[in-house]
Write a structure and sequence with these properties.
This protein has about 325 residues and is of the alpha+beta class. Helices cover about 45% and strands about 25% of the residues. It contains seven helices and eleven strands. An eight-stranded mixed β-sheet has the order 2-3-1-5-4-9-10-11, with helices on both faces. It has a three-stranded antiparallel β-sheet with strand order 6-7-8, covered by helices on one side.
Length: about 325
């Protein structure tokens, strides 16, 4: 019913746009017939407003997927390279948190594994708000950083990698049926920097989904129950993502094209030395304002990707 209401609202907006276009056409004909300059100014203002609304509604076509309006679960994983990549993973996490804040989205860190010396090994954050998954699915893939290392005494140039995953949250219990015999739940001590235990009681949770082999861990909360709830939320999201991939693979057999968000699929480069540039390799969009991007100003990059996706869908 909610999906039906959303589609009804969207159809109503397009019908309203059509009615405004018809009324504008009549106004133009009237202005031409009467050679009325004041009417011509009026329809020019209305035309600009109509074009603006049309552009906004065309962009919303990018969010036509069945999960695009859902809460997103975003995961950042440091690649090989030790402290360098772990620091890069933390920079990415900060970037996404700032972007979410600028969009008015609510965020919650579900799990975080700190780095050995600095940064993070991995983190998982829930981003809640309209079109959260629709926007953030553009970020799936490998992100590459080139810079002068702050951790290298010689200040040599280093290249670091991090993998970003984006999962749609499973919203209904009936969407996924997980039997109690499908799960193995292990409890252990949470750990901090350097691997030391940070709690005397066992609160960290590891859940293994036996049919699929998916393993989810959570140790961010002090309560075992809270960690289990967060881990189940992530597990459900991973199972939804697995179903999305399965459908994509079926479509790939028909279309002959499938892009996987796994290692080796570098989607974007962030270069801080010897020049400054952020470039999205899928769309060709680039900017020299690296500071703005790393501070969460991602809208232009996201919109470029989503608009290119619309073009590919229409040409396909």
């Amino acid at each position: 019913m909610r999906r039906l209401a959303q589609l009804g609202e969207m159809v109503g907006q397009w019908q309203g746009l059509h009615q405004r276009a018809v009324a504008l056409d009549e106004l133009v004909q009237l202005a031409l017939d009467e050679d009325d300059a004041s009417l011509q100014d009026t329809f020019q203002e209305e035309l600009l407003a109509l074009e603006s609304q049309l552009g906004q509604m065309e962009f919303l076509l990018a969010f036509s997927g069945p999960y695009d309006d859902r809460t997103a679960i975003l995961a950042v994983h440091a690649g090989a390279g030790g402290t360098e990549s772990q620091d890069w993973a933390q920079m990415l996490l900060r970037m996404y948190l700032r972007w979410a804040e600028s969009q008015g989205y609510k965020t919650q860190i579900l799990d975080m594994s700190p780095g050995d010396e600095a940064g993070i090994k991995s983190a998982m954050v829930e981003v809640a708000g309209q079109w959260a998954y629709g926007y953030l699915r553009a970020e799936r893939g490998v992100h590459r950083l080139v810079r002068l290392s702050p951790y290298d005494a010689a200040h040599a140039r280093h290249t670091s990698f991090a993998l970003v995953e984006v999962l749609p949250e499973a919203e209904q219990e009936t969407e996924l049926i997980i039997g109690p015999d499908d799960l193995r739940v292990d409890v252990y001590h949470a750990s901090g920097h350097g691997g030391q235990n940070v709690q005397k009681t066992s609160t960290a949770i590891r859940i293994t989904h036996l049919p699929s082999g998916i393993v989810v861990t959570c140790q961010n909360e002090r309560s075992q129950l809270q960690n289990k709830e967060s881990a189940m939320k992530v597990l459900r999201a991973r199972l939804v993502e697995r179903e999305i991939k399965r459908r994509a693979e079926e479509q790939a057999k028909l279309k002959g094209q499938h892009i996987s968000a796994e290692w080796g699929n570098q989607i974007r480069s962030y270069v801080l030395h010897p020049y400054k540039m952020v470039k999205d390799h899928r769309t060709g969009y680039e900017t020299s304002d690296t500071d703005a991007v790393l501070n969460g100003q991602l809208s232009q990059l996201l919109q470029a990707y989503l608009l290119s996706a619309i073009g590919q869908a229409q040409s396909g």
